[in-house]
Structure formats: C-alpha cells, structure tokens
Amino acid sequence: MPKYKLLSDWESAQEEGEHLESLFDSFSADNHEEAERMVDAKAKELMYGGPYWTLVEDEGEDKPIADARDKHLIMQKGIVR
Which residue range forms the structural domain that includes residue 12? Predict the structure, then answer.
C-alpha cells in the first residue's frame, strides 16, 4: 500500500489574509452581515481560500520532499494546488 505525506502552505493563507486586510482596512456597510458578504465576495473574486495543502507520495528517507515553508521549491515542483 502506498504511503503519502501532507504538505501545508501557510504562507499563502497569510499573504491572502494580509491582502484582504489592506483592502478592507476601514469600510462602511449597513450591518455586519453585509460587511461579511462584501469581504466574502472579494475573496471569491480573487479566488482566495485554498486549499493550502497537497498530498505527495512518501518516497522514504532517500529522497527528502521540499518543506512546505520553502514555497519557491514547492511552486517549482508544481506541488501546491
């Protein structure tokens, strides 16, 4: 049976959150629900929201898999979805 590893990419989630915070630093809405809808619509428009993980086959100790914090390596290998 094959073995798998989970790789997480928390950096992308943080970058997206910081970008949304910069866009919605201070804004007006009629109520809390409308404010949530506005932010949610922008997040969907920007296609934010992950997933921030991927599964790869565990190749054992002979071939180490790039650490999820090494985003540039992960992107080069096409691992992040």
Answer: 4-77
* Number of domains the chain contains: 1
Helices of type H across 1-81 = 10-23, 32-45, 71-77
Ramachandran angles phi, psi of 56, nearest 5°: -130, 155
By C-alpha distance, which of 42, 37, 40, 36 is closest to 23?
42
63 has which bridge partners?
Answer: none
pLDDT of residue 23: 97
pLDDT value at position 70? 62
Cα(55)–Cα(10) distance, rounded to whole angstroms?
15
Whether the pLDDT of residue 69 is over 80: the answer is no
Average pLDDT, the chain: 83
Integer Cα distance of 76 and 80 in angstroms = 9
